[in-house]
Fold each of these.
Amino acid sequence: MSTWANLGLQDSASPLMEQLIFFHDHALLILVMITVLVGYLMFMLFLNNYVNRFLLHGQLIEMIWTILPAIILLFIAFPSLRLLYLLDEINEPSVTLKSIGHQWYWSYEYSDFNNIEFDSYMIPTNELSTDGFRLLDVDNRIVLPMNSQIRILVTAADVIHSWTIPALGVKVDGTPGRLNQTSFFINRPGLFYGQCSEICGANHSFMPIVIESVPVNYFIKWISKNLNS
Ligand code: CUA
């Protein structure tokens, strides 16, 4: 069920998403201040009839209201650039996961572990368990260790897809013939849901992503179980 919490961003599960939320709030605060000030000024213009018959120019005020907004924009531009470069950092990953977009499902490869590979399809509503999330749960989840740097390689087999996990601050296009890279660090255990976010065809809405974040020893157990089967 939708609640008020769903109107904003999801709680972050990675340091980068935390920074993205801080930046969002920072930019929004500046936006609100500008909107209130300009709104107040425009509203007050309707409520007075002052006229200055001799007003032709005002060098000083024009200097001020040109330079001041430029300085305010710098307060958004510098944190934005900092985040942009931070998101691009790879930080010596300990696990690499390759995700391949298909019409209309994702397939995954753990290239570090004898190339474990599997497909991940959405569970149709009529097959969903009572505690499942409709249009969001998949048959085979990605299992990843928490508190480790993880590299994601994204590509696609047919058309452009997008591998997007809001709680981790990850959104990378999977493009046929290209290999895109990103990385993240999950700082708590849990299930993290995502969806494809490039309009990729009729079933675009039905290729969700589920990450199962587990402690490292559980991850090793999962890996060795899959290596033997
Ligand atoms: Cu794949 Cu939209």
Note: The chain has a mean pLDDT of 95.
Amino acid sequence: MKPDTFAVDQHQQISIGGVTLAHLAKKYGTPLYVLDYETIVHRIRDYQDALNELNPAGQAFYAGKAFLCQAMAGLLEQQHIGLDVVSGGELYTALQAGFNPDRIMFHGNVKTREEIAYALNAKVGHIVCDSMDELERIEEEAARLGCLAPVLLRITPGIEAHTHEFIRTGQFDSKFGFGLGDGLADRAVERALDLKHVMLKGFHAHIGSQILEEDPFILNAESLLRYSLGWNQRRGWWPEVLNIGGGFGVRYQPGDHPPRLTTVVSAINELLHGLTPQGLIAPRTFMEPGRSIIAEAGVTLYRVLVKKEVPGGKRYVAVDGGMGDNIRPALYQAEYRAVIDGKVDQADMETVTVAGRYCETGDVLMKDIALPVVAVEDLLVVFDTGAYNYSMASNYNRVPRPAVVLVHQGQDYLWVARESYQDLTRADNPYVMTADEYR
Ligand code: LLP
């Protein structure tokens, strides 16, 4: 879809957050990531309102892997949403921005000893444990630091969601978590309940990303609840928290119909009250949305620099960015929609393939899409690039990564500066340069 504040004036000039894209391109250069404040805040509130309907109230944790920088962490803190981090780097970014560690969920299928200690020292609210090796490592680090580690165990429930196989995680042969089917989850729970420095708070299961159905989420919640019931009978243990992960899809294409959050949440409410044994409090439901909060808030602006027709009649339009700032088409065959600033309603259309600037045949942003007849110097606006674009960007070909700008009520705020050539060489050691020095 488009950012909520997307508007087109009588000259077909596009603005977002009350700022024209032409102005942003001129001020900051291209390629440029633009994020709309209102869209982000609306999506956050949708989750908070829906989860508040639960009894006990649930909590949303934004998945920082979709997009994170210090300013974003600051905005999230202001909105009192939680934050899911998956590395020391994401944790550092959040803490630098003054994010409340209580609302941080520390994730990842491989956490180093240093990262575990960092999370424990920072007193993050929860650590999601992914393997037996890690469970022992958490126990050791918590013992060394003299604290109790609040742990959720990541369960692999055996739910196969219909999404690209690279972003599917809930099936039994996944690299993530403890399988329910193979007894690994049982061993992990037994062990966690016996460890002195681990406090088992509940379970987590994330089944995949860009899921467009409701049922897999409901099934996921149900399987975690039923699994908990078994433990209540066996050892009298009952979870405080069930975290059903992220994965809500967004509308990249007109045929994509995202799941309804309110439907999922009310089904979970019924499950919680139908299944929680008498005398016990239903666990709190946590969700970890990434894409569904930030994808639609973002657009990327590119300048068209080349237009060519190759033998066979195929028309290429080449822009000043590509797989370095958006790897998703090359990695997942992801499809995007775009328009041209100043030509939004133009009737004269053509079919073009939009190629990037990187030295890779696969660096194609959009294949055979219909655009108004394109000219060199046009400003191409690609939609829904807020999630997993900047966060997966690289310096391939030593191209500096673009800036990120937030727009709100007619103002623009630089969130992340464009990298310079100096940034590219910052970590290079310039003193080891000639072959002679190796003798
Ligand atoms: N929680 C966990 C444990 C996750 O692994 C993920 C995403 C999320 C939450 C957030 O999922 P979301 O709501 O954003 O779907 N790079 C891929 C997506 C990878 C998702 C990885 N995990 C892409 O560009 O499509």
Note: Residues 246 and 288 are 4 Å apart (CA to CA).
Amino acid sequence: MASKIKKIAVLTSGGDSPGMNAAIRSVARTCAYYNIECIGIYRGYQGMIEGDFLPLNARSVKGIINKGGTVLKSARSQEFRTPEGRKKAHENLLKEGIEAFVVIGGDGSFTGALIFNEEFNFPVMGIPGTIDNDIYGTSHTLGYDTALNTVVEVIDKIRDTASSHNRLFFVEVMGRDVGHIALNVGVGAGAEEILIPEEDLGLERLLQSLKRSKLSGKSSSIVVVAEGDKIGKNVFELKEYVEENMTEYEVRVSVLGHMQRGGSPSCFDRVLASRMGVKAVETILEGKSSYMVGLLSDKIEITPLNEAIKGKSKINKELMRVADIMSV
Ligand code: ATP
């Protein structure tokens, strides 16, 4: 592939997710394959502003494909939101001879990249790395599949306690704006109810449904609640409401929190990261800029960054129907 570009940087930005390391490795190795220099930027855009760079060759990314988190570290940089901060970052990239960068992160990181491209006409490329799967232009973001597997395993364990004590558990999972994790783990772990931001069941319907479950012979129940669910103010309020209205159940709450973001990436995420890294570098070498690579109908495709940022990932309606039928 003939290209004028000889040096590409890679950084991880925003919240970490499993698979980021596999993507860093893929970008570095694809650069090595095409005889291009690769530079790792530490601590996201803050490291770009401070010139915190490290050359990466094919061997320096060994042994990281199976590691969670990000070896390049991540950060949220307020300074990069200012024109002065971005100017410093641009000067550092020029000084180092970097001609394009690949950012692995969420929509905030992509917004920063797009602004940077518009200000300095600097080639940028995005790889979606977030467990929430809330990005348009890809059926899966990096880390999402791993998070689903992690959460299903935990809910299976919670169910052991729930059924031993006739308890009702509210399990809160990540997903402030979208319910992909809740819906999928709810179906995968056999939850009785799934509460997601996209659908407001209402407290009364939740109660009716739990009462129906009880009458049908269920002695315990798991309700999976996405962080951003709109029914109650929070999962503890839901607990109080149900306890007041269903004295036959002992109700418990489990908030899973940050453990959902960690851990060794699943095989699916490692493969996806490897494919995305190759496509990101090859797209830059084709002279393109400001795209996000994504998985669409099992093919790695590119979507303009501005569409990826503005578009909404849609909840799977068919899966919502399956969830309904399964909780009969
Ligand atoms: P996550 O999905 O985990 O939250 P994210 O990439 O959306 O990941 P953000 O904190 O929103 O995470 O963004 C990461 C970084 O991108 C910010 O700390 C900031 O440096 C940069 N960024 C975000 N929005 C902008 C913006 N409007 N202008 C410039 N930079 C931005």
Note: The longest strand covers residues 167-173.
Amino acid sequence: MQKYIIISTILFLSMESNQLLDYLPAAPNKILDIGCGTGELTAQIAAKGFNVLGIDQSNNMIQKAKLNFPNLDFVQGNILHMQLEQGSFDTVFSNAVFHWINDQQTLAMKIHTVLKPGGLLVCEFGAEGNIKTISTAFSTELNLLGKAYYSPFYFPSVSEYTTLLKQNNFEIITAYDYPRPTTLKEGYSGLSNWVKQFFAADLVKLDDPDTVMKHLEDRLEDKLWKDDHWEADYHRIRVVAKSI
Ligand code: BEZ
């Protein structure tokens, strides 16, 4: 595990805590939640007394978020293209979303633009090595069919991501990666349901996806099947950085 931590006086952190939300500053302020999905974390941020706007590019998610939490603010849009007022947020928060975004340079610039000077980015997403056991096995199965697997995800190392942020005028407060083994729900079907969600683009190109899935389960059973559930080998990066 790579660790890079600078304690800053502006943060009130519980370093023992495992919750990304605990990295938010103590004082109430205005927060942008990028990729809020159905709004559960946005609501937890609001419950801490923050003024929060949740955004997500999925209209379906935003409609559900509005139904779930009618008193909170949600807007549908893609952070890379949305018109958000410059310097209008004290903190940008994001959980489990940045790995979906290819244009990280534009994302970092955009976050810097919407933050006030001295504002914070608090984020977590997939790190280098995330789901390596699953993706390696999937890649092997595709290779046996004469096909290749190209990961669509951005899973950077700590040094790669912190370098990008520094190039975009951020000072790193805390940055580390950590293993986060994740239980997949729904028993033995859990792996195939997960693969259908995260490797969907590859599965649709296969003549016989069910057989590939069966071979994948066989290949991964020793490594990831734990008595009554699959455990995906998630590995996350967590960063708190200050806009300068
Ligand atoms: C995650 O770390 O949440 C994740 C990212 C991409 C694919 C699967 C899981």
Note: Residues 96, 99, 126, 130-131, 153, 198, 234, 236 surround benzoic acid (CB under 6 Å).
